[in-house]
């Protein structure tokens, strides 16, 4: 019998941190493996349409997605006694597409939802909505207030 897999979407937000902590607690309870996925859109380093390739909105900070994901995983693991190791995956592209594809090999997908204000809290974020529609395993959505 294979070990169950809990897949977690991580984007660095408080909500995704709450989702990761929740998944780790479930993994401890049920002996599951946890896989954390961070998806991002790679921005061009050179903007050829501008003078001398300078970014029109000022200097953009260099992103380190793998480092960001590892930091989020370590913070979550530190908050959950007995937390298992976490497989960390960084992908370039649409988060919902990657999570839906990865859900084919998971027993559970855990995601946070973004919410600011009453209207935003009443509606799911785009990634959460698409995952609920396209995932091939059950999906748990951690609400914004759970991140506090």
Can you walk through the features of this model?
- Helices cover 37% and strands 20% of the residues.
- It has 148 residues and is an alpha/beta fold.
- α1 packs across α2 (65-79) and α3 (95-102) runs parallel beside α5.
- The radius of gyration is 17 Å and the shape is globular.
- A five-stranded parallel β-sheet has the order 3-2-1-4-5, with helices on both faces.
The overall pLDDT average reads 85
Q: Compute the separation of the termini in Å.
A: 37 Å
Helical residue percent?
25-40%
Count of distinct strands: 5
Number of helices: 5
Oligomer: single chain
Overall body shape: globular
* SSE series: EHEHEHEHHE
Structural class: alpha/beta
How are the strands of the biggest sheet laid out side by side? 3-2-1-4-5
Blueprint (SSEs and pairs):
Blueprint: E1 5-9, H1 14-30, E2 33-40, H2 65-79, E3 86-92, H3 95-102, E4 108-112, H4 117-122, H5 126-134, E5 139-142
Parallel strand pairs: 1-2, 1-4, 2-3, 4-5
Helix pairs in contact: 1-2, 3-5
Q: Keywords, please?
A:
about 20% strand; alpha/beta; 5-stranded parallel beta sheet; about 150 residues; globular; single chain; 5 helices
